[in-house]
């Protein structure tokens, strides 16, 4: 994406919070599921010619093109989606009524300040958790993966997140845009990466790890949350050729969307 600075995926406002000390967070830090909020129920997949609806957050964030990039991916996916943008500035707030019409909600990358972004999302958190718990699907990419965690975040994971860059055994020493190798279902693949999270999943959880970083930490995972599902990725499976061109990077596998499509399908499947 020429002219787009994806360095906004960095987390300067919360230094170290998701890194090695993240595991020390107490259970009390988990955001409580609200009581008395409207129980948004996910709409079942469309059974007619109309494509299912995906809501893509496109509120204030550092990467203006991250939401549109995900929207384009979803329109071209094997299961085509209709797209509506939600969040401050879009004219469509993220509410229980809006969620009830959708099959999928996407929190894309591009956030610069997790605490500041959470101020825009906090009022919607109870409605979103209720919607996923009742059958909705949450997809979080990079910054959206961090937001699936907690303190602050939606608290949708059986565990939490921490920064992969600079962690023990990491192949990424800093926050620059790069291409990393992951093990995707046991096979080496390469993905676009910019300071995304790794996932610290509770032992015995029902999470399915689709990919791990070279140090063994989960890089891409799908986990149940009530009747719904949560898919998260530290790398950017949605990155198209323009992302690589802009930063002078090359993917040894070629730029392919199959990993993104597999993650989407795993997130919405029941």
Task: Compute the number of strand runs.
Answer: 11
Contiguous helical run count: 7
User: What's the helical proportion of residues?
Assistant: 10-25%
Order of helices and strands: EHEHEHHEHEEEEEEEHH
Structural class: alpha/beta
How is the topology of this model organized?
Blueprint: E1 53-57, H1 66-76, E2 82-86, H2 96-99, E3 104-107, H3 114-121, H4 125-133, E4 137-141, H5 143-148, E5 159-163, E6 178-184, E7 187-193, E8 197-201, E9 208-213, E10 218-225, E11 228-233, H6 241-247, H7 258-268
Parallel strand pairs: 1-2, 1-3, 3-4, 4-11
Antiparallel strand pairs: 5-8, 6-7, 6-9, 9-10, 10-11
Question: Could you explain the architecture of this structure?
Answer:
The chain has helices spanning 66-76, 96-99, 114-121, 125-133, 143-148, 241-247, 258-268; strands at 53-57, 82-86, 104-107, 137-141, 159-163, 178-184, 187-193, 197-201, 208-213, 218-225, 228-233. The longest helix is centred in the N-terminal third of the chain and has 11 residues, at 66-76. A hairpin with a 2-residue loop joins strand 6 and strand 7 (187-193). It is an alpha/beta fold. The protein is built from seven helices and eleven strands. The strands form two sheets. The protein has a nine-stranded mixed β-sheet with strand order 2-1-3-4-11-10-9-6-7, sandwiched between helices. It starts with 52 loop residues before the first strand and ends with a helix.
């Amino acid at each position: 994406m020429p002219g787009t600075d994806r360095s906004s995926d960095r987390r300067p406002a919360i230094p170290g919070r998701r890194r090695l000390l993240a595991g020390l967070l107490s259970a009390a830090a988990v955001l409580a599921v609200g009581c008395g909020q409207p129980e948004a129920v996910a709409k079942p997949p469309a059974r007619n010619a109309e494509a299912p609806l995906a809501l893509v957050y496109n509120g204030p964030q550092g990467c203006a093109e991250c939401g549109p990039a995900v929207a384009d991916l979803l329109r071209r996916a094997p299961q085509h989606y209709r797209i509506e943008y939600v969040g401050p500035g879009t004219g469509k707030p993220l509410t229980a009524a809006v969620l009830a019409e959708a099959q999928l909600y996407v929190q894309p990358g591009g956030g610069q300040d997790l605490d500041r972004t959470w101020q825009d999302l906090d009022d919607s958190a109870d409605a979103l958790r209720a919607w996923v718990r009742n059958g909705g699907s949450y997809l979080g990419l990079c910054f959206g993966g961090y937001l699936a965690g907690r303190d602050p975040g939606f608290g949708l994971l059986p565990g939490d997140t921490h920064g992969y860059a600079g962690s023990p055994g990491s192949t990424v020493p800093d926050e620059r845009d790069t291409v990393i190798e992951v093990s995707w279902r046991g096979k080496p693949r390469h993905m676009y990466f910019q300071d995304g999270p790794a996932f610290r999943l509770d032992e015995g959880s029902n999470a399915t790890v689709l990919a791990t970083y070279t140090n063994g930490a989960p890089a891409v995972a799908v986990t149940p949350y009530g009747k719904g599902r949560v898919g998260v990725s530290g790398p950017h499976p949605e990155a198209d050729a323009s992302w690589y061109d802009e930063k002078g990077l090359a993917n040894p596998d070629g730029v392919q969307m199959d990993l993104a499509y597999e993650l989407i399908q795993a997130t919405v499947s029941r």
